[in-house]
């Protein structure tokens, strides 16, 4: 754990997109496939056209390979979208791609549930499985089965 | 983004069915399959027989191809049913067909949950996958699995 | 009941503000004070500045005097805001004043819960008790106690 | 208990308004004031104009005097509205008056929550306290405080 | 639509089982498979042994063939069980069979959720797919997957 | 605590009404008025007419005097109604009276919420304040304000 | 129906395990496969070690063969566990086996959701499909898919 | 409305505390006392010690005097806390004081419900009534009755 | 803020009752009465008889005087009950007394909602208002009105 | 049952990780595959870096082989993490491995839902099926289908 710089230490919070803050630690159970899920209801970014703040809850689920993302560094990474402008779909795809690059996971999925603008809310979902493994098929399987029981939305 | 006319600009609201207001922008992640979902609880149209207003929440989920529908134009498009008369099933099928024509998506589904008339509410659901691709099979797969865990309805 | 024109008959739906559609029938229990409450989740009007549709659930509770509002006429009256432009607060005050003028109730209150615009929703509430009666005090009492246990709002 | 004819015996169900089926038994705790509440979600009657069935949940709460209504007879009484035509407000006032006549309670209140017709639901509430006692004041007190925290209605 | 006799017209309500009130209209989208679902929380019938009223919410979902059931006629049909005696399972199977006979749908399912008798509630579910088509397999598929995430029941 | 016989020891469970199992311990904070509430969802007794089991959740709230009821002995006491026949109202009044006799509390209230029989559920509520103290007025105050925001009951 | 002894008649309630009270009637729709589900929130038994009462909601779903269990006899059968001592898992397996023996169903599943003991609640689930039929495969299929979306448990 | 600069126009979003963005319009119903409530679930500020983002839902309810706050300017004002550091209690008191200064309302209350830090969430509530009027008493009355039915918090 | 030792610094966690960890800061708004509420769902202590862990959510609401409790020190203080044995009622009274001693608040209330033991959960509530002020009356007022709308408890 | 040492006996609670407290009893239904699920909302451990307490609800579901874990011993085992430091993922994997070693089950899964730290909550899930049996495939099947309908998280 010696190379973790955030957990248990003082922190500087940066609000410009910075994937460099992400840190990993070693998966102690690499022989089993298991899920780790992060629920992050404090996500905010800016609309790239109007500059207006957007708000979302981000759900990230992955099956670790040899590396795992450290959760405090993930918090800082998500904070770094605070003054960053990007569309909802792009935020979700960028988060997924940054975490793939960081951890090389077997599988990962990222689901954003944004608050409405103009009476409509947008929920992008992206996933990925390592090419040439059964996790590639898993990605398609979960894409097929995504959100079959959608939540009721009333905007209240 | 230069050809988007609605987002960040003043708007004229029209309440007669007008698919022409729909606009697209380019999908920046065409190489991955991912979901985009719109939750739209402010849908209203007219009953074609009685002229009485109908109300619904419309859920639209799609896997984009090269084009994506811009969300403010989608809002205007849904507003354009306000003084338009059509049955519940027809509204849902028309919305789906207009979006297919607009975006040529890999896959799309549209689910309307209408408020009750005569003590009964009606929830139409239509979907589509591009012919000759795995998304055609996806359409049948999701048709098979549609609404297996239905919500409890009490009309209150 | 002979002077009720709407209930059980065919209907023309008008979408411009028309308090004239409101009709009354006689209260059969004028000697007791009792409550009648209408829950109306299908209210829609237009923003007077932008022309954009607004949506609300309207809750109307009153203690009848000698006249009571007929519910189908109330439906038509609420429909008549469909193409009418007014601010949220004004809609609620207008509805209350029209019903006072129509029925001369002992007491009435009108609460609108609107869907959000710009990430914020607005809930106006107005009430009235007949001057010089205990219902005038009731109006102040219920004003004092209004919404002490507010609902949780998440905009989803 | 010897004069109870319904509980534990076979039953004939009548569907025409019949307050005569109501039966009482003696309150064993007449020295304390206490509440008894009935929750009755199986109420149905007919619209007196259109003949169409109406549905409601009826909540009856009372503070007994010397007599108490037997619950199976109450069930039969509520069943007896099945083929009976009356407006929502009248059903609630009739139920209250029949129970006052039957039991001479210290206090009683009856709240009906009906399913919507024409997109609007109606919830009448009536109450009563024995004249010349503190329960008369209780009736006004609870009338004042009625439904200060109304439930959210969506018609779904 | 010229052969629809109920929608937009005055209505006689009959409370004896009458499948003859059911009416159809033409499916305008016969080339696509899509779902239509009816939520009907106002169902009541009689117990064939005791004559006691039973209450249920009925959920009907189908994939239309060339004909579709008109919703007001469906309301009248469901009303026609009001004074009809049949067991829960039989009501559900009869409703399904009558609708198959009426519409010749590709697929249909009917789920009844009845209120408890003797502390136990009963929820029958029946489905059907047109013989010799993929919808026959769909019927078995949905039979297999029925109610895998059952609702919590407390009888309150 | 030396005279507590149940807590931390083996137990014999008796299922016939036995107020003698109730035990007390000393209130360590007799100088302040404070509330202690027990939520007991495992109550069952028998109908005195039919012998059929009844089920309820019992809520007991009190302001202690010098003695407090020990919670394991309360559990055993409530278990002792298991084979005991009494009406809903009587169970609630008996529980309250036994606890008054045991503890001589400043104030106590007991609310039972029973499961439905014949489609109707019954919720008795009884309370008590020590005569000649402000707690006697508290009893009337809370009687007046009882259940002003009743829960929604659907029998499911 | 002539051999049903419980429904519509007076009843003796026995509280010792007695599968003999179970009765059947003929399935009128043996040619279709359909589900019948019982929701039974009034189950109570005794811990075989401590003698302490246990409480559960039991969910029973089956696809009938030629015989169906009569619901009032099922109620009596479940009541017969009241003074019977058995572990949670054993109750669920015994109920399933007794119903298989009684009805010879095509498929059956029994799910118990018990209240917590020592801060932990236990939910056993058992199922069965007739050997040598497609229902045997159904049993394994539903075993595989059991409880994939578990409810949130807080012990409150 | 001519002096409203935000509604219906393009907007510059500033994220440093700026009460100057607030704008008013005239109350058209100054003769009646009525409530206006804003639900604002998109509030975010910074911790003044650590610099870490905080998130809250802000509920603002007021009884207008002659001026009313325009809702889009309120949105911009709340956005202006985005890069501003202040404790939870201070944010709530500052918002209230700025709105008093802006509108001179008869009464106002501000309730913040913040997301947890260190496993504990903090909900400050402040209110105000115009000195020397009945609204001053209202402030104390609502302070007394604040949050008597608190929501259940689980941090999930 | 210079005398705050916990916030933004490294922390030693102690699990033995230690009111000394509590720290205060100055109330910046001493001229207004306002509420501060802490929701603390991570409370655990030990049963003084059996040594078994107990779990609760603690709700603390107060109206500050000149001093306010710093929230991180409150977290540490609540953690300090982790290996401490005390009855539910005593924990709540001790927490309240320690905070009174620390802050000398105008008013304070502490409500604990514990998880069940033996099928019964216990919810103690204690409050305090400064003697000789209107807050002393407030304490009695809120004691009178405590928990008039209790939550439904099912132990699941 | 003679070798069970905990159930029905006095208990010593240890708070240091001790898998040795786990005990088994014989599965009485080894011929059928069935599920046993434990819901354990009282789990607490320590963060291995900061020493701060963590809280979770643990859900354990398994299909027993010849041995089954006794539930009181499971409670003691989970209590033994109270003063033990480990990351969320490690706790879940350790619990699963200890139970595999103890019982040699056909299949087991363990899901932890932890309370948030730094605004993010973490939910690890691990599963296992006996190598060389159909339960090995079951493990992959349930891994694929894990959490397809995730709960909404708001951190309140
Ligand atoms: Ca679902
Ligand atoms: Ca909602
Ligand atoms: Ca509902
Ligand atoms: Ca509330
Ligand atoms: Ca919400
Ligand atoms: Ca309420
Ligand atoms: Ca609703
Ligand atoms: Ca329920
Ligand atoms: Ca309530
Ligand atoms: Ca319910
Ligand atoms: Ca589910
Ligand atoms: Ca719960
Ligand atoms: Ca409450
Ligand atoms: Ca929660
Ligand atoms: Ca519960
Ligand atoms: Ca939540």
TrEMBL record, chains A, B, C, D, E, F, G, H, I, J:
<comment type="similarity">
    <text>Belongs to the GTP cyclohydrolase I family. QueF type 1 subfamily.</text>
</comment>
<protein>
    <recommendedName>
        <fullName>NADPH-dependent 7-cyano-7-deazaguanine reductase</fullName>
        <ecNumber>1.7.1.13</ecNumber>
    </recommendedName>
</protein>
<dbReference type="GO" id="GO:0005737">
    <property type="term" value="C:cytoplasm"/>
</dbReference>
<dbReference type="InterPro" id="IPR050084">
    <property type="entry name" value="NADPH_dep_7-cyano-7-deazaG_red"/>
</dbReference>
<comment type="pathway">
    <text>tRNA modification; tRNA-queuosine biosynthesis.</text>
</comment>
<dbReference type="GO" id="GO:0033739">
    <property type="term" value="F:preQ1 synthase activity"/>
</dbReference>
<dbReference type="GO" id="GO:0008616">
    <property type="term" value="P:tRNA queuosine(34) biosynthetic process"/>
</dbReference>
<dbReference type="InterPro" id="IPR029500">
    <property type="entry name" value="QueF"/>
</dbReference>
<keyword id="KW-0560">Oxidoreductase</keyword>
<keyword id="KW-0671">Queuosine biosynthesis</keyword>
<keyword id="KW-0963">Cytoplasm</keyword>
<feature type="binding site">
    <location>
        <begin position="69"/>
        <end position="71"/>
    </location>
    <ligand>
        <name>substrate</name>
    </ligand>
</feature>
<keyword id="KW-0521">NADP</keyword>
<dbReference type="InterPro" id="IPR016856">
    <property type="entry name" value="QueF_type1"/>
</dbReference>
<feature type="active site" description="Proton donor">
    <location>
        <position position="54"/>
    </location>
</feature>
<feature type="active site" description="Thioimide intermediate">
    <location>
        <position position="47"/>
    </location>
</feature>
<dbReference type="InterPro" id="IPR043133">
    <property type="entry name" value="GTP-CH-I_C/QueF"/>
</dbReference>
<comment type="function">
    <text>Catalyzes the NADPH-dependent reduction of 7-cyano-7-deazaguanine (preQ0) to 7-aminomethyl-7-deazaguanine (preQ1).</text>
</comment>
<dbReference type="Pfam" id="PF14489">
    <property type="entry name" value="QueF"/>
</dbReference>
<feature type="binding site">
    <location>
        <begin position="88"/>
        <end position="89"/>
    </location>
    <ligand>
        <name>substrate</name>
    </ligand>
</feature>
């Amino acid at each position: 754990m010696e190379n973790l710089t955030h957990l248990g230490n003082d922190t500087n919070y940066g609000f410009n997109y910075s994937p460099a803050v992400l840190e990993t630690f070693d998966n102690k159970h690499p022989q089993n496939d298991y899920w780790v899920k992060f629920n992050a209801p404090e996500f905010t970014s800016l609309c790239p056209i109007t500059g207006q703040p957007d708000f979302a809850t981000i759900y990230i689920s992955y099956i670790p390979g040899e590396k795992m993302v450290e959760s405090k560094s993930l918090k800082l990474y998500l904070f770094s979208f605070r003054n960053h402008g990007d569309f909802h779909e792009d935020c979700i795809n960028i988060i997924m791609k940054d975490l793939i690059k960081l951890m090389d996971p077997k599988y990962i999925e990222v689901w954003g549930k944004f608050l409405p603008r103009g009476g409509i809310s947008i929920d992008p979902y992206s996933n990925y499985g390592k090419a040439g493994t059964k996790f590639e098929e898993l990605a398609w399987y979960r894409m097929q089965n995504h959100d079959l029981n959608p939540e009721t939305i009333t905007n209240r």
